[in-house]
């Protein structure tokens, strides 16, 4: 498949997945919280296009896109959202802790910033074992104000570790606009403080993200150390499902919705004669079928047995 | 008297204290309007008092606690809101190594009128990092007071007391209590920190509890009454300092003791209460002391597994039955 169609398909898959998850959550079928990544698909897809299956990835509470793009099995993922025994975490983690070691997904996280120092650690392990893996840590603009961000990246910088620190600046830390939680114009500028390259990229342009990620991955694999990438994007929906977003500036929102990464690539592909209505319809249907299949699988899976509650605390 | 929610009682306390004393202010993540805090406790306050005194912070729990402490030792009376007790693990240097000790280490040169307001508790599938009950950690630290209200009236009266207190207070709310309603006085009622409350008198057993488990204790006591067991319920309200006298007086009457908290049993406050009663009230005890708490596991996401780990009134009933010789076997 043409690379651009491939990007498009993957972004569409994440978008449709999120829309389905929202409708299930709204029907009360999924317990816990849901943090949608709609609007940010290009970052997930672009970054993961530069990774191999063996590479490690840390994500956040807003991680569905990242783990899908990294190749996580959708059935095990949906089952986890349903808290079923067939879920990747056997119903113990849920959306906020989703993890699948088999594809290098070392976890979403409920603690903002917590994946960053862990990513330095997996990269340290790769360096010491010379296994050629790189680690990507995704996090938000809000996370760049935590101690974990500053300590974790500095350590990776000092030790020249193969890590890509990927900040998705989606303009919000919960209800707080990025303008009100930090003074730097660009989060990528913070790289200066660690003495590493800081790259700013249009996070609504999947190809730009893919290119920036690929360059940083090459650097990391060559032993040249970590990179901080800031992908400029936007959280189209609320912080979590149910958030009334009264704090949102609607003009700003409307401006960003015009930059919808999926609409952009659609236009591009159509102009290049690579996409038409029929192909689009087929893609959508194909993805819907995959999602429905995964949901069926989850719904028909068993709940965890109560006896499992005390399993997996220690080895 | 009015009937209001726990959440609103907390807001009233903050509002009244901010009105009364201009050195009182609050800071935390996403507490400003229109969002008004993750649990909406501060809703309306930034509109009323302005953003100088109701301050949003970046996601920087260490800085929130530390900046509040700095302000506290220089004449302000800060309330630092940490969204989840789980995230106080990120503030802990400032709370444990600094706030709890600075007065002592300095030979009494400063006072620390600091309130760390936060919330804990399971019950909504928020998983292993958003519901831990870590209060015993803070109760273990000399130099900290730990307040845990179970009702709207106590939430208000104790938060006012905590704000007026010249020592650091860790004020722990419970997320499942925010919507409960209860009667609250119209007067400026300030409760005493360190005083337990006997919320129901009884003869056969004393149930000591605090925070959300007080409500489970009431359910348990209702159910026990049906089998002829009369339970006295004590709401500790403050776990540090501990009101041991109220507990001892009750045990001297009932001769049996069950301690119930949502935190895991191991290393919990129940152990401290039990040890004190064994030492100071040994002769009054007619039966072993029972501790009820959650199982020693991280909190699972699955609602079904969560129920398996977290204790409830059934566990209290069973514990009471196990130390009362003639208790009927009941199946629930
Ligand atoms: C240490 C910590 N503090 C606070 C929170 C509550 N919280 C969850 S997500 C969030 C905002 C995160 O913003 P950002 O890092 O920009 O990521 P985004 O939600 O925008 O993807 C906050 C404050 C948390 N989970 N962990």
Characteristics:
heterodimer; A: 315 residues; alpha/beta; Rossmann fold; five-stranded parallel sheet; two-stranded antiparallel sheet; 12 helices; 7 strands; 10% strand; B: 332 residues; 2 domains; seven-stranded mixed sheet; five-stranded mixed sheet; globular; binds thiamine diphosphate
According to CATH, the fold-level topology of chain A is Rossmann fold
Largest interface: A-B, 37 and 35 residues
Q: Largest sheet of chain B, if any?
A: 7 strands, mixed
Q: Quick one: CATH class of chain A?
A: Alpha Beta
- The total tally of domains of chain A equals 1
Q: Report strand order across the widest sheet of chain A.
A: 1-2-3-7-6
Order of helices and strands of chain B: EHEHEHEHHEHEHEEEEHEEHEHEHH
Bound molecules: thiamine diphosphate
Q: Structural class, from secondary structure content of chain B?
A: alpha/beta
The span between the termini of chain B is 37 Å
Helix-strand blueprint:
The complex is a heterodimer of chains A (315) and B (332).
Chain A: H1 3-26, H2 41-48, E1 56-58, H3 64-69, H4 74-81, H5 115-129, E2 135-140, H6 147-159, E3 163-169, E4 172-173, E5 176-177, H7 178-181, H8 191-194, E6 198-202, H9 206-221, E7 227-232, H10 250-257, H11 261-271, H12 277-299
Parallel strand pairs in A: 1-2, 2-3, 3-7, 6-7
Antiparallel strand pairs in A: 4-5
Helix pairs in contact in A: 1-2, 1-11, 1-12, 2-9, 4-12, 5-6
Chain B: E1 2-5, H1 6-20, E2 24-28, H2 45-49, E3 54-56, H3 61-72, E4 77-81, H4 92-99, H5 102-105, E5 115-120, H6 135-139, E6 145-147, H7 152-164, E7 169-174, E8 181-184, E9 197-200, E10 205-209, H8 212-226, E11 231-235, E12 238-240, H9 244-254, E13 257-264, H10 269-281, E14 290-294, H11 303-309, H12 313-323
Helix pairs in contact in B: 1-7, 3-4, 8-12, 9-10
The structure holds thiamine diphosphate.
